[in-house]
Amino acid sequence: MLQEAELQRSTVYRRCLPGGPWQRLLPGIILMQSSAPTDEQLAVAALLYGGPDSLLTGVEACWRHGLRVGDLRDRRLHLLVPHKHKLLSSGFVIVERTHRMPLPVFRAGLPLAPTRRAALDAARLLRAEEPAAKLLIEAMQRGSCTVDELSEELEQGGQRGSAIPRRLLKEIAQLRSVAELHARHLVRKLSVGPTHWNASLYGPAGQYVGCPDAWWDDVGLAWEIDSVDFHFSRFDYARTLQRNTKYAAAGVTVVQTLPSRLLHEPGGVLAELEAAYRAAAARPRPPVRVEAVAA
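Below the sequence we write its predicted structure tokens.
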């Protein structure tokens, strides 16, 4: 646009020098102000750099789709461009050339990759399981993606960076939160691990009792990982009281644990579970049956 205005390169260069009124964001992209660019200006600059067929993907796109991404979001932007475009990453923009350009989803006028593609593109660049797992579960809970859809998207893409998300998708297929992923890792240290995860429990008359996060069927012990942040809505907290009443009426022993303790007090959680198992084993098993696939 500046070239169309016949503004000389030397003039643009001088105005973009330190202390000048403009700044160079990316090759060929000038911001005509001296103050720090906003998130919106950075996103527009990235898309201008990528060209008319480019899309935002990764963490930024996930955030714009309404997913909770926490401290994963920074000012690096992941851009998808058609493979035929010979464009390189530059500055704050990570350029990924792809033969599989998805149809854009527009949010606030900006073209984004669909949620499942954006979440997997982000997970492929992460090198740690916990943030990748949290992001994929967030895509399922808030982005309405299924494990099958995410797995299909992953298989259709390249192999680069796919090992962690592929392993996680297999593991979290039956989980309801990233806290349950931590729980599965923790219980490997127990003398007796749970027999089921997310088991549906029914009383002797066929009445529904509950669906604990973990279940020891041999002794009738339930484990619930309770937190507003790790369940589907804040109304679940009110249902906790009703849930515990049903457990008590059915004679089921239940251990409740906050997700934060899985990371910060693992020894204490393990001790509580061991003690609860011994106590449950010392009394008659409650007359409940389970309908679930064994762990």
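DSSP finds eleven helices and 14 strands in the chain.
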